[in-house]
Amino acid sequence: MADQANRSHAVDAYPTRMPAMEHWLERKDPVVWAHEEPKAPLTEEMVADFDRDGFLILRDLFSEDEVNALQEESRALRAGERALDPESLITEPESEAVRTVFQLELQSPVFARLAADKRIAGAISHLLDDQVYVHQSRLNYKPGFTGKEFYWHSDFETWHAEDGMPRMRAISASVLLTDNDALNGPLMLIPGSHKTFVACAGETPDQNYKSSLKKQEIGVPSHDTLADMADQHGIEYASGKAGTVILFDCNTLHGSNGNITPFPRSNAFFVYNAWANRPKAPFAAAHYRPEFLGVREPHEPLSIVSGPIRSGQNQ
User: Fold this and answer.
1) What pLDDT shows up at residue 306?
2) What is the CATH superfamily name and number for domain 20-232+279-315?
């Protein structure tokens, strides 16, 4: 168990979900915590792009065989060929089609190996200038014709309010498992939005996660805020072939459209939090969300590994 000092609050740097109106706060944390290193896993230009935009697209990290192994494992998870915790499965709002599988690294050795891969975890550990652990992981699947949208939000707002993540020192990695283009509901991001924290209005309902996993309504920016952010910064979408990796800051506003094309869209998603940024008590909720949504007391930092990813691979 973490000691009581680790669980109690320091001063809340990002108060949110107050009864009053939504308001904006200037970011108080660095985007890039790293110092320049001769053998850094990312170029200076890449680091500068991430710092400016709040996201970075990495291409051609994985071989064709590795991408095939990840796609086969994704198919097996969605087809019920793996023993999965029922609580970790989220279906589409109007059907029983699988929308999300959580805790990938605990339920699949192949995805556990992906989460620990130096090409991803090593780059993020460098940007955060700390050891990391996986705060949350999931397989997102947006089927053809019926895949629903993911509404605009900042992940950090929820992780801060409901999981107790104290500071903006976390980065998400989305590994594309299918080709993503402008048509099949790709990730959309507002570049530069990560420099402003949108403190949302409205208190957190009890067990808010049960409804928010299907359709998020609490902890989302207003239409006026989204319009202002888009006017200031524009909107970009992240396209790429299967195997492309999108890194994005915990506070970058993002979302995705529904998918009415015949072509499914799928990705593996890992949240890497700095070891020094482990959760405290929730800042704007009466209770923690379940462990499958946010690890409360990680046992140790992630052991980052190198080498190829293979089908049926053990950790």
Assistant:
1) 96
2) q2cbj1_9rhob like domain (2.60.120.620)
